[in-house]
Amino acid sequence: MKKKSKNKLLFNLFILIILGIGVYYVYQEFFANQILLKDKNYTFIYIKHNDNIDQIINEINTQNIIKNLNNFKWLAKSMGLEKNIYPGKYRIINGMTMRQIINLIKYNKEEKVKLNFNYQIHNLEEFISYIDEKLELNSTELSELLNNKEILYKSFQLEPDNAFSIVIPNSENVSWAISKEELFKILENNYHKIWDAKRISLAKKTGFSIPEIITLASIVQSESRIKSEQEKIAGVYINRLKKGMLLQADPTLKFANKNFNVKRILNNDKEIDSPYNTYKYKGLPPGPICLVSQQAIDATLNFNNHDFIFFCAKPELNGLSDYSSNYQQHKNFADAYHKALDKKGINR
User: Fold this and answer.
1) What are the residue boundaries of the structural domains of the chain, listed by start?
2) Could you tell me which of 160, 159, 164, 155 has the C-alpha nearest to residue 128?
3) Is 33-111 assigned to CATH 3.30.1490.480?
4) Which of 76, 108, 315, 317 lies in the 20 to 30 Å Cα band around 178?
């Protein structure tokens, strides 16, 4: 082999080696695993509305996910992320590359947030706090929306005191970055699925407005989860309302005193000065005392017609009640019930 050809071959080989090292470096820096999660398999980053690349990098940096943020920024720009930033919650899995993270955001592959509207939420304030904790939405903007008289009346014919009525117990999978208008629309759709033409017609026949039915149903539901019992209990309360009697509903005292988990009402619970204290104030309280299920609404709309104006849980504590139309009979039932509580050591 001639010396000139040999030198050319060596030169070309050198160039290939340099290019190979360069390609390997670029691959390692931009495409190989870059995630530095410690002691966990995944984490989340949260991208807010109007966030830019610098704010995304800052979010990533706070969790120490990527070792070379400058490389990430360069790659993000080269992949066109600046024009394709979607707000949301993104799951970052240990072993991901920078390219995969960028594509998560660029193609809006967000992790949905599951909202559980259940009986652990007792009032509108707790609902707003729950949303504030789970989503980008903050309590202030949501509170302003749910206390807007014009919007509430236009969409639901409700007043702010009844705003909690629009929340129907169920589960929803939503974007972490959902807007207040989008969330409100979900609540509105769920509400009107319950309050269809048939139930609206039944409500009119009872002589009570829809907000009153919802409030009454919340009390009925708090008394029992058994549908047949709910229908009887609704009949008792409606009889009391029609006679102008105090409702004297123990669940309203739990609500007024914020003692949601107590099993026994005491006399001093009845002293609180609250519009929700149905031992002091006649009629229904201003709004519902819990999230109201479809079953409780239907039980209230289809209440039993009877002459009972009292009821008391059975001493067997089996979810059923004893009903009576005179106070002496009711007192006998109540005495038996309290003895059963004493025997089981239920003092509160």
Assistant:
1) 1-28, 33-111, 113-194, 197-343
2) 164
3) yes
4) 76
